[in-house]
Each structure stands twice: as structure tokens, then as C-alpha cells.
Amino acid sequence: MKLLTALRLASTGLRVERTRLNVSAMNLANAHVTRTLEGGPYRAKNLLVAASPLPPDFATRLGELSEKLAAPQVLGIVDDEAPFKEVYDPSHPDADERGIVRYPNVDVLTEMVDLMAASRAYEANLSVISITKNLALRTLDILK
After folding, report:
1. How far apart are CA 30 and CA 44, in angstroms?
2. Domain total for the chain?
3. 83: Cβ–Cβ under 8 A, 6 or more apart, which residues?
4. pLDDT tens column, 8-63
5. Strand blocks (E) in the chain
6. Taking the complete model, does pTM exceed 0.70, yes or no?
7. Which of 36, 39, 76, 95 is most exposed by smallest CB count within 10 Å?
8. Is-contact 100 87, C-beta < 8 A?
9. CB 47 within 8 A of CB 74
10. Which domain holds residue 101?
11. How many helices (DSSP H) and strands (DSSP E) are in the chain?
């Protein structure tokens, strides 16, 4: 694999994981918001990620291997359609006529696990970039 291809794949991975970290942090920050500007409780967000083919310039250089390589790409951020959590609390300012308060559909435990996984994947991509940089520098030293 070419060094530039490794860098490109790792950099796209960094972008995806950074977005994943931001979405999880946003969900955690709004885990107790019962009233948004749109009305109603905050709705958790999910990240849509898909594999996209490498750009043509890399594909032509890699030949057969290019059909197997794909870079991650964020397709979008969508609302989680899970139902809101309902809690009986008639003293809450956002309680309805039955005394039920609708809380966001954010699962704090799941979001923490997503944060840890995204953080580890981000670190792994940083390691790939660091190793690739070191390989390039060593190659240049050999050519001197």
C-alpha cells in the first residue's frame, strides 16, 4: 500500500471519529433537556457512516487492491426515533396535565461507551499517521 493512501485512509477515519465524538458529547450534554427551541425534549442524534470508494487517482495507482479499499464517510446525522422516557413528576415545569415529564431518549451508558470507542478509534488513526510519517522519514534517510 502506498504511504499516501494510508495517510488518506487514516485522515478520513479521523474526521469520522471526530464527528462521532462530537455527536456523543452533544447527546450527553443534552441528556436532561426537556424543552428545546423546536418544542418537546431533546431527541438523541445518531451518526450515519458508510464506506466510500477511494478517489480515482488512488484507484488507478493501486490496481486490483483498490477494489478492496474503502474510506469511511459520514453520510449524515439523524434523529434517534426511540421513544422519550416518561417520568411522573407533577412539580416539574414541563409536566403535562397528568404530571408526566418527557425526558430525552439519550442513554447515558451507551453514549459513554460510544465516546470511549470513538476516542480509541481516533487514537488508532493517529497512530497510523505517526507510523506512516516515521516510515516516510526512514525511507528518506535510506535514500540519502
Report:
1. 8
2. 1
3. 105
4. 889 999 999 999 999 999 999 999 999 999 889 999 999 999 988 766 655 455 55
5. 45-53, 70-79, 85-88, 100-103
6. yes
7. 39
8. yes
9. yes
10. 3-143
11. 3, 4
